[in-house]
Every structure is written in C-alpha cells, then in structure tokens.
Design goal:
mainly alpha, 4 helices, 2 strands
Length: about 90
C-alpha cells in the first residue's frame, strides 16, 4: 500500500481513488508518480483558489505530468478506479 503524504486537505473520496490508482501503477513508476502528482494536484487546487484537492485536480495532474508513453495505461487505471477523465471533471 502506498502512503500519500499531503500538505493540504484532500477530498476523502478523491484521495481514496488516488491511493487505489497509485497501487495499480507499475511499482517502478509508482514513487515518481506519487511525488509529481501530489505536488501538481495541490498546485491545481491552489490555482483554483481551493483549500482542498479534488478529483479534477488529481486527474489533471496525472494527464499533464504523466509520461505520454504511459497515457493509455493511466487512462485504463483511471477508468478502473472510477476517476472521471473524459471531460466531466475539468478544473474550474
């Protein structure tokens, strides 16, 4: 199980999906994915003026910061854990 250390509040359901997704990412990519996506998710929330990270912040972080070579894998895992990456969950 991957432990996510955060510096701000995360919406509980979004954090649960994120933890589940991290555990499905191949182990050799998991550490860097966690580091990069944690940071970018929190930056996205701050940019929205929010005190909490929400699902759209995480999805956007994965899609913008993840290696393009693994895009299809990320999308498949997002589908598996229930992240809405198809447009209904855009950062506002």
């Amino acid at each position: 199980m991957v432990t996510v250390v955060t510096t701000m509040k995360w919406e509980p359901q979004a954090l649960a999906k994120y933890n589940k997704m991290l555990n499905l990412i191949p182990i050799f990519h998991r550490g860097i994915a966690k580091e990069v996506v944690n940071k970018k998710s929190e930056q996205n929330a701050i940019a929205r003026g929010s005190a909490q990270v929400e699902e759209a912040d995480i999805v956007s972080a994965f899609l913008s910061e993840g290696p393009k070579a693994f895009y299809s894998l990320m999308v498949r895992i997002m589908d598996e854990v229930g992240f809405d990456h198809k447009g209904g969950n855009k950062i506002k």
